[in-house]
Amino acid sequence: MEQQALLPHLFRTEYRKIVSVLCSLFGLEHIAIAEDLVSDTFLTAAELWAIHGIPDKPQAWLYVVAKNKARNYLKRNALFKQKITGDLLYLAGASEEMDIDFSEKNIQDSQLAMMFTISDPCIPTEAQVALALNLLCGFGVQELADAFLTSKEAIYKRLSRAKKKLRAAPIKIEQPGAADIRNRIGSVLTTVYLLFNEGYYSVSQDLPLRKEFCAEAMRLTQLLIENESTDMPAVNALQALMCFHASRFDARTNDRGELVLYQDQDSSLWNRELIQQGVYFLNRSSVGTQVSRYHLEAGIAYWHTHQEDSPEKWENILQGYNQLLQIAYSPIAALNRTFALAKTAGNATAIIEAEKLQLTGNHFYYSLLGYLYEEIDPAKALLHYQNALRLAASPTDKAIVTKRIRQLSG
Amino acid sequence: MTEFLLVFRRDHSSNPEQPSPEQMQTSIKAWQDWIGGIAAQDKLARPVQRWSSEAKVVRTNDIVTDGPYAEIKESIGGLIFVKASDFDEAVTIAKGCPILQWGGNVEVRMAVSPDGQ
Questions:
Q1: Which residue of B has its CA nearest to A329?
Q2: Nearest Cα residue to A233 out of A292, A192, A278
Q3: Distance (Å, rounded) from C-alpha A112 to C-alpha A250?
């Protein structure tokens, strides 16, 4: 990988690891110091690698530099050292030279602890998500603003408020106990799923990076599954869901980078291995009595791995959406549910249900109506597609609608 | 949006025999599709709770009887809470209820806000 591509890549994968380890070591009240040290590490990397080239082991290089910077900081800042000496000495086994542990195990433990600390109930859910994406995933403010469809200023405010709360809160970064896990696993999973979706649905054309987001979300979930106390049904269901979605990653875009709709995908490009893994996690999730939104979404995604249409497939998808909408409404689920209804009960029935949705600000709503009317009333279908085109924002969405309009008019 | 209570009542005395598994399956699908349709409009006000048909009726003088009840023709099959802009809309939603196909009825009630309006 070229340096220009490597450094952002490493920033994405290593920033949060180093921040987690340092935060676990320094405590929550010193998040800013940890962040500054890690940012400074990457700045040094950018400067030195430009001159000397990329080191043999860039990852290890970053750990060593971060370690040195942390030690130097402690030496220079007697006051800070004094404040945290008690804890640090305890952690460092009272040795003078503090050991900063960047082993795989400690990175994993620190990240798990951070995941749950950030999800503490004293932090508003929205802020938890932003905080986790920022600290645990190394997302920049601009990316967060895009992901949350809000301004950079709003994200800045949200993050600084959340960090203030974290600093002031009487909580410690530590391995979560059973009660913490019960209370916070939901928001931990929300965060992970958001990270996955950022990769899966992002408008960015940077496919390798997007794939990496998805892989990172699955890795974080794997972290939870490998830890006995967080190996819960909903966690496995989320992993199954992400495996099924990710299996179609390569089939979703053509050579020109354009989106290929599900029904047009070449299913030989679907990743069978990921589908099998998905089935494995789906089976592991089928214990207990709680049905989470992830169970339902994984079930829906499972049926999508069968490309051939069958009454059984679409009936299962419809019932999945019927249940999902009851516990987690979203406009896109409402539209997908109506599509499944069309597949099971016919377009005429689905049109009646579709028109009740009144999602008049959503271009997918008009695309769905256009699709449903194609045979029944082509003139009406055209009007709906034109509305969809008017509302569509991304070039990809516009291209898909334009194609339909051309086929209908031609 | 105001919250409305939809109570489904069914005349259990007129169709006493047990439904076949196929009928049960059709019935479950009809309910799921109806409730799914309400949820798709984001008009479900509270999570749906299913209720068992087993019942007891408590009366004055410490009288407790088991259902089904000889003296009451109808019993509650279930209830859901929906969001609607007015009574008309709530009634329109109720008109889709599968219980109507089996001779039951739906009672629609509007929530009273804390200030009594």
A1: B42
A2: A292
A3: 30
Of all residues in chain A, the one with the smallest CA distance to B34 is A322
For residue A40, the one-letter residue type is D
The two structure tokens encoding residue A392: 């569509």
> Which of B86-102 are b and which e, b meaning 16 or more Cβ less than 10 Å from the residue's Cβ?
eeebbeebbebbbbeeb
Cβ–Cβ gap A356/B32 under 8 Å: no
For residue range A97-143, what is the model confidence (pLDDT) as tens digits? Answer: 567 889 988 898 898 898 888 877 777 766 777 787 788 877 778 77
Q: What percent of chain B has pLDDT over 70?
A: 86
Q: What is the ipTM of this complex?
A: 0.88
CB B36 to CB A326 under 8 A?
yes
Stated pTM of the model: 0.81
Q: Alpha-carbon distance B75 to B83, whole Å?
A: 24
Nearest chain A CA: its distance from B32 CA (Å): 6
A251-265, pLDDT tens digit by residue?
A: 988 887 777 888 889
pLDDT for A40: 94
Distance CA A91, CA A362 (A): 53
Find the CB nearest B37 among A333, A353, A358.
A353
